[in-house]
Amino acid sequence: MGLNDEKVYRIDKAILEEKFKMGLIPTPVSKNISVDEVAWKKHHRYLTNVVDVDEKVVTWNDKGRKAEVLNKYYESLGRENCEGIETVAIDGARTYISSTIAYAVNAKIVLDRFHATQKASKALDQVRRDELSKARKNDNEELIELTNCKQRFILLKNKNRLSDQQSIKLQRLCEINQPIYKAMLLKESFIATYDLKNEDEAVVHIYQWIDEALESGLPAFIDIAWSLTEKIEYILNWFSCKRSSAISEGFNNKIKRLKRMAYGYKDIDYFKLKIHQHCGYLNPRRFNLN
Question: Does the predicted TM-score (pTM) go above 0.85?
Fold first, then answer.
């Protein structure tokens, strides 16, 4: 049709802005939400996305990941609608927690299994990197071979899914390196919290885990232990409502793919609209706003 890229972009943005005003102003009300951030640009530039867990759509987003950003979402809902929110699944970020406590006064904040597993895996990988650095300084060829980047997935992978060869390597690694062996046990014990039958068992297990982590001498797990002392309530909430923020991670993957397809977005407002088009109420395959 003889249109250049700039013209197509402006037409697309104008149409999406019109659809946004029709369908997303005022902000759709949700009972159960998940909040997470996704990087939209290098150098720690983030977007906060709010997902309706029941409808499985992104309902709101804005630039940044501070408490003030999420405050805008709650303020757009109004006091009565905020009080009607039942659960908020998050990754444990203090900024999101403080904002939710201030506005969604009746909501249960949930630190779900997905992010708990993620935090434990990151701590274990940090121990691996620390031990790899020591092995290189000491010219320990066997330990270097077992802890290099190619082998990291053996540590992070579910033990039941390891091949026979991978299981042998993991067993050998635990035999020759005490810190990694400790880290493996702490990771598995932490994740096992979500397999317990009830909240009472979980309370005992968590406090025991915190004591073990603090005595482990592993900085990565000590940091998690101190963090947990303020967030035990949010883990225990999982047993009463079983809510998860895994859906936000799924949308984050779609958003990252969207960004790669466009080779990045210079216009943050356009990017926000495209997220609603692919993951929210502006998706023409799911919703008709005509």
Answer: no
